Structure formats: structure tokens, C-alpha cells
Fold each of these.
Amino acid sequence: MKGFLVVFFTQQNRRYQGKMLGDWVIDLAKDLGLRGATLSTGIEGFGHTGKLHSAHFFEMADEPVEIQLAITEEESDRLFQRLEQEPISLFYIKTPIEIGFVGRGDASDQPTPAVDV
């Protein structure tokens, strides 16, 4: 199936509607019934302004955050239409991809194979 890998970039200290912006995007993805989303934190990065963002032992607020979604074109359309309604600004990358599963059934349904040593 064809779809898109959508990656949003923000920082831990950005908040919207009382939540960290990354968490808000994850909740929005759930509300829209999207296939899944992953929120990851980074160690260090910089944005279009050139300002360095990094995770420090005492201050995690400026830590870079990335939200990744592998979604269909229809899901992408719904997501971006909804985001356009909000007074927020998020940098993103949207790349065409192929989405699918390999193997038989759900991996959680499969027994753990025995390993001979």
C-alpha cells in the first residue's frame, strides 16, 4: 500500500492546550484513528534559526522531539486538514513510502521460536 512517512519536529518545552506539543500531536493521531505514531526524543539538534537544542542533565525542556507517522494518503489529508485549523506552527517532512507487513499474522500471536545452542 502506498502512503507517507510524516515526521514533525518540535521541542520538549513547546506546549499546546495544556500538553507538550508532541503529546498533543500523538493524541490527535489517536483521535483521528490513524494507524500509529511514535514520539522520540533527541539528544541534540538545531532548527532554521540555528539555535542549538539539546538535552541536559538538569534541564530537559529544550530537548528535541520528533513525531513519526506512517499513514495513507487519506489519513495524511485528514491530519493536515485538522492541523491547519489549529493556531500552531510545526515543521514537518512528508515522504512517499510503501506500507505493509511481512510474514504471517500478527507478531504478538506467534510463539517465540526455540533456539538450540
Amino acid sequence: MPSGIDPTRPSSSRVYDAILGGKDNYSADRGLRDALAEVTPEPGALAKDNRAFLQRVTRYLAGT
């Protein structure tokens, strides 16, 4: 475990990874993901839309 990482506390980036179905997250992150799913309709769809938007903006700014 790298120093400075607390696997018992959720991290926004790891929760985002968990929502997108990634592998770089811990139990605490998946717990928060599940709690968000109870109050937010389809957090996975929102995260995927956000990622697609960021990709479009990056391509636009890069001029490709």
C-alpha cells in the first residue's frame, strides 16, 4: 500500500472508478458508490456521459 492512501476512507477519484466499473478502488469506495446509487438515478450513466464530455472537450482543445 502506497503511503498516504487510506483504503478505509472513500476517495472521489476511486469512487468515480468504481462507478465506471474499474478495478482501482476499495470497499469503502464501492460502499459510497452503492449509497449514491440509492439516491441518484443511474450514477453509471452520469459518469459515462461526463467522461464522454471530457473526451470531446479534450479533442476540441487539442484541435483534432
Amino acid sequence: MTVRPLAPGVWGVLATPLTSDASAVDTASLTRQVEHYVRIGATGLTILGVFGEAARLTPDERRTVVGTVAAAASELPLVIGLSALDAEGACAEAANVLDVVSRPPAGLMVQVGSPDPDVVAKQVNTVAERTGQGIVVQDYPVVSGVSIATDDLVAAVRRIPAAVAVKSESSPSPPAVAALVASLDVPVFGGLGGTGLLDELAVGSAGAMTGFSMPEGLLACVGAYREGGFDAAREVWRDYLPLVNFEFQAGIALALRKHSLVHRGLIDTPAVRPPARPAPDALLPVLHQHLRSCAP
């Protein structure tokens, strides 16, 4: 198996647009969203992440999403998310979608399924060996329900030869990112909607892998940090941060981001599937104010 670390930069996490009654995937909107990422110069795309409601899609819908994105993504590399916390489930999810892509993905994103580093290493290595793919190790305890100590995560990743990156979403993220960067040879990306992006860059992250609805801001911040360091990135990012924080409200974050994407013309409806909740009508004028304030 030959694996390559993920390139630094911005890996957009795609929303899965749904029809107005949330009964099916809206492939036309999904294609439009992908084409936007291609136009703005994203480093790569992540499919079937948490922001993509992967856990609420049927196996056939997951195949539809992956096939649609792969067809529209041009040469952008793709990371495909797996929702299962066990190796057997993750391998089944991978087998369901890998045959609809015409080129190998940059990696499969596997969630940490245990606080025990030995179990994590065995879990992830099993997925890598059976699929023949590189692995992005995702630590997202709020979603997975699994909390692993940073030192134990380091120990696990060191024993995963196929690791191509770590996506660190254990809050507070900057200390975790700092410790991972100092101890690992693979790139470490932040997520969490971009809420910790500037500080994560300052402690050595490779960039962002998240679903913020205005990814131009992520690109501007990461680019400014590369060119001018912390002060330059802070100057750029402060215009976007109010929207980042607004969109990251617990329980309604997904719906708010989808409303943002609708407002921008990138998808047609803000429909979400339970347990995600629709955005309160009272917040939509506020959302539009935020969008006007940081329009590219």
C-alpha cells in the first residue's frame, strides 16, 4: 500500500443537499456546491462527513452522493467519510461506495472508536488493510461519544502506517492540535466549523477540514497565514468569525449552514433530517446580516 499525506490547505466538507421534503438527495444542488469549491480553489473535498449528514443517509444515498461528487470534482482529491465506529461497519461502508469513484480517494476518514489506543490502531489498520486506502483519523468525541486522551491518540496514530492525516475536533482544539503536531509526522487539520482555525494555524495545523458555508473565508485565512503569519491571518479572519460563531450553534448548526448555502445560491433548500432541527425563523434575518457583512 502506498499512501501520501494530505496536502495542506482547505478541505471543504460538503453538505448533502436534500429535496424540500428531505426525502431524497438533490444531486443538482450537490453538483453546484462542488463546482463552487472547484472555482474558488479548495485543496480537496470531504464527502459524507458529519456536516454531510452521512449517518442519516441510506447506503444507496451514500453511493449517489459519492458518485455525484466524484463526477463534478474535476481533479480535486476526495476524502470519503465513514460513520461506523467499528472496523466491520466501516469496511462495509467503504465497500458500498468505493466502486463508484473512478480514481482512488485521497483517504477514507475513520472515526476513533475507542479510548484505548491499541483498539484504535487495530480498528483503523483493519480498515486500511481491507480497503487498500489511506486513512484520515477523525477524533470528534461530541459526535462519536468516544473520548480519547491526546497522548493515547498519538500512540494509536504512530501505529497506523496508512494514516494520511488526523482531523482533530476534540474541544478545546488548539491544545490538542498543538500536541498532535509536535508528536506526529502526518498533517493535522482542525474542524469544528472553523471556530478555532486561527489558533490552530498558530500551533501548527495544516489547515481546515470543515463545512463553513463561506469557504472563501477559510481559504483567505489559511492563505494569509502562509504569506504573512498570525497578524495577517487575524486581519482577514475577523470579518468571517462572527458568521463562524453564529453558524456553530448546537442543534441548529447544520440548518443554519444550509440556509447560508441557499442564500448564496449553492443549494436549493435548507431541509435537514432529524435529529437535526430546522433553523428558527427569528434567526434568519440575523443570518442574512452576517452574510452581507462578509460577502466576498
